[in-house]
Amino acid sequence: MCPLEYKVQDGIAEVDAVVDCLLQHQVAKIEQTISQKAALFEPRRAASTQKMDFVLKPKVPGATWTLWQEVFAILDPRNTGWITNPALQSTRLICPEVCNYMCELLCGAASVAVRQQEAPSDGFSKEDFLRKMLEVTNLRHPDS
Q1: Which top-rank group of organisms is this from (predicted)?
Q2: Which of 12, 20, 115, 124 is deepest in the core (most CB within 10 A)?
Q3: What is the predicted pLDDT for the residue at 54?
Q4: pTM (2 d.p.)
């Protein structure tokens, strides 16, 4: 039999959707960065029009904001406000490789204020999670 910690729990659709969104948007962001860097080395032609990003990002819809908060609550069953890689893996809702990647991605986004409080360096807070979701989806906080 497979050890308990390796058995994947039945997925929760909301968690799957948010993790999928995070990963897909992060991949798109990386691909865009690579194409921008590659464009620097292409032969120059006549000036062409460039696509400009919006100056003001659209607000995240209320339902999406609530969904992100609910997913964080599911991933943090002890309601500590802080998720470490081992705790994330222990939920068995996300495969270990994705847990590792998410923690690497989100731990890099950990706020300076959290680091100054000497919080564990291998985890991320709810604010870090929400900030990263806003960043990758190119949306802004609903209260801003």
Answers
A1: Eukaryota
A2: 124
A3: 63
A4: 0.75
Distances (CA, A) of 141 to 12, 13, 64, 101, 122: 25, 24, 11, 24, 25
Radius of gyration of the chain measured on its C-alpha atoms: 18
Which residues, 6+ apart, have CB-to-CB distance to 61 below 8 Å?
142
pLDDT value at residue 109: 54
104-121, pLDDT tens digit by residue? Answer: 999 875 554 454 454 555
Using DSSP's 3-state secondary structure scheme, residue 118 falls into coil
Integer distance in angstroms from the first to the last C-alpha of the chain? 51
How far CA 127 is from CA of 29, 33, 69, 113, 134, in Å, comes to 21, 25, 10, 11, 10
Helix (H) or strand (E) holding 83: strand 82-84
Give 48's contacts (C-beta < 8 A, 6+ positions apart): none
Backbone dihedral region for residue 47 (phi beyond 0: left; psi -120 to 50: alpha; all else: beta): beta
What domains, with CATH codes, occur in the chain? Answer: 12-40+54-137 (1.10.238)
